[in-house]
Amino acid sequence: xxxxxxxxxxxxxxxxxxxxxxxxxxxxxxxxxxxxxxxxxxxxxxxxxxxxxxxxxxxxxxxxx
Amino acid sequence: xxxxxxxxxxxxxxxxxxxxxxxxxxxxxxxxxxxxxxxxxxxxxxxxxxxxxxxxxxxxxxxxxxxxxxxxxxxxxxxxxxxxxxxxxxxxxxxxxxxxxxxxxxxxxxxxxxxxxxxxxxxxxxxxxxxxxxxxxxxxxxxxxxxxx
Lengths: 65, 149
Known about the structure:
Chain A is α+β, with helices and mostly antiparallel strands.
């Protein structure tokens, strides 16, 4: 991995803090509609979330059905 | 929320994240990288995945690691399946504020928009990109990449 993990960055290793940051960035953004369109999920099928974190990102941005 | 007919898989190298994801019980999650995921589910999911989402991952990876990941994505996607990535991007002409903010990003491989497209084009014939600088209140530039197998 090529990333910073020391100092303040180490806090992001906590799933609770990471979830909060994800929700802040993905859940309440003005460009949310762009992300929803981008992530368009099928009604049925298989979805793979690469670097899924606590497994919340897809739930945060997937269009509500 | 996730459509009820979808089977949701995920992987992440951080065990704390995966513990939390598994505790929610809404999918199948593997602690590790693409190679560990392929070891466990590669046979089962080869050519069967409809959509792969990859949000803010590739800018944490070197070129070699990115190629390994994208190769895995290509093998897992069904024909016509889609890889959807969102990454921070640099631009040749970029405002100083977003440039400065992005320099604090945890990932050390924020590429230029053209470099992102070229990276995906080495694995997928059809790649589309859109650049957005108004996603949220933080001055930041994102690129939305879609690759179709």
